[in-house]
Amino acid sequence: MAGGISIHGVDVARGVAAQGMRVELHALTPNRRLLAAGELGANGQLDHPTVRGDGIEAGPHEVLFHVGDWLRAAGYAGEQARFLDIVPFRFVVTDLDRHLHLPFKFTPYGVSLFLGV
């Protein structure tokens, strides 16, 4: 797959895709603007035209993962449901022909975000 940004969420504490987690993808320059928003599907991925590169330009971007809301909806309680809230991930698009896969792996107490293959 050439170009685009794919977002993939997995609850590694329970070993399940983060189906239903709200995510937002923003371009940050020249002004902050929303490129994509929605809920992750059954496979834990956002299905949006930005996955194929639509609307993506070179420059800084940010994904917001609404993990706190998702943890509460998934049945986590107490501190596990309240520690994390919205998790931001900032990165820079430099090559419009390169597909950027952004895996978001999380537990109620921490996250791992990286450029996947």
Report on this model:
The chain has helices at residues 67-73, 79-82; strands at 5-11, 16-17, 22-27, 33-39, 59-66, 86-93, 100-107, 110-113. With 117 residues, it is mainly beta. It has a four-stranded mixed beta sheet with strand order 2-1-7-8, with no helix packed on it. The chain is elongated and about 40 Å long. The termini are close together. The model has no long low-confidence stretch (mean pLDDT 96).
Q: Give the averaged pLDDT, no decimals.
A: 96
Determine the fraction of residues in helical runs and give it as a percent range: under 10%
* Main β sheet profile: 4 strands, mixed
SSE ordering? EEEEEHHEEE
Q: Give the number of helices.
A: 2
Proportion of strand residues: 35-45%
List how many beta strands DSSP finds: 8
Parts with pLDDT < 50 across at least 5 consecutive residues:
none
The multimeric state of the shown protein is: single chain
Q: What shape does the CA trace take?
A: elongated
Radius of gyration, taken over Cα atoms and rounded to an integer in Å: 14 Å
The rounded distance between the terminal residues' Cα atoms is: 10 Å
List the strand order in the largest sheet: 2-1-7-8
Category by helix and strand content: mainly beta
